[in-house]
Amino acid sequence: MRKSLLNPILALGVLIIIIVGFIFVGNTIEGYFPPQKPEEIAGIPVGDTVVSGMKVVDDSKVRKVPVLYHYEYVLNLLKEEKYLQIFAGLLTGSVETPLSKIGGGSMSLQGVAQGFDGPGFLSVEGQQLVVKPPGTFVWGYKTAYIVGVKKKDSIEIKEGGKTGKTIKVVSASDINNETMHYDYVNITAIKKWYNSSGEGDAINLDYSLSGFNDGRNQVPPGKIKTFFGDNTIVYMKNYPSGSPVMAYMGPHKENATASSAESIGSYPEYGDAARGYNAMSFAKAWNGTIVPPKSSSHGKLNVYFEGVYDPNATGNYAVHGVCPAARSMRNAIGSAGLPTPIGIKWDHLAVAYGVSPTGDVSVYNNMNYPIKIVMWTQGSGAGTVVYTKIVKLS
């Protein structure tokens, strides 16, 4: 009887010694091999933008280890509901490293981005591959990505800028909407550019977003709508290359920090109707412009201004009516504690002859929060009043 009791106890003791031995051997062996780097298991480049539901881990890249040395991995995989991997591990004697060991941060145990709204991005923190949710504000810069370079009898289409990779060549006789269809420039403008430019000159055809405030990778043209929506595309179309673009805004507050109003008055010698129209155009060109911290922005370029005859102006024409609108914006910006916009003076004649009210004027935000310029008009002709508000986004 006593002997029969000793046998199970002895067997249990031997089993414990074996398990402890395997753990010791496993830890010893593991010490000779560096742990797997998080970026090695990434299914997409680290830094790329992701949204909830995207698979971000390449399971085939996850390192396998002997199951005898890491029997606890079986338990981890059981928690991760990776039954196929457990079955394969028991058959082959090797089991993959559980994702809980090398991944985390808004990522499921199956390597899928989860638990956040908006555009996050893949990152590395310590020894883990993680998905970072977006901050309240995500902005980048409109950057030329697809360009056309003029050759003797063709246009060379390049990806990644003028010195980038050539993706196709379009002969001069084949320039049409089928061979060169882009959102930012129409075929008429492309043909006009080709006929007036010299060999080696370049034209910007499509744009990416780059230089993001949170350090994520450049987002190419084809993915901007997917990650940031139609409104971002519309905004990019309105503003020049290099402009900051607020690609995403989470829940936030908007508070007006300053405001101003200017009446354009009557100067019939310059055409009050045209002046009222130009004041309205100035407001339209700057309304809704968002300037992130420590960034500069121009106004919209696709706004029309009407030339008014003025013998004192270059070419005898000027866009009268923009000065009262510029004073309205200038005064509000000054009251908000921002620097005077480049291209605008502290004179009654706020915009000098020959200065574009949008392309040559820029607003710099020296604050640590984004601002939005809100402008509108009331009335018409000499009775037009231009209103400006500077709004803090927080």
Question: Can I get a quick summary?
Answer:
By secondary structure, the chain is of the alpha+beta class.
Distance N to C terminus:
79 Å
Order of helices and strands: HEEHHEHEEEEEEHEHHEEHEEEEHEEE
User: How many β-strands, per DSSP?
Assistant: 19
Count of discrete domains: 4
**CA gyration radius, whole angstroms:** 31 Å
> With helices defined by DSSP (H or I, 4 residues minimum), what is the helix count?
9
What is the multimeric organization of the chains shown? single chain
Q: What is the percentage of strand-forming residues?
A: 25-35%
Mean pLDDT: 88
Largest sheet: 5 strands, antiparallel
Helical content band: 25-40%
Basic shape: elongated
Secondary structural class: alpha+beta
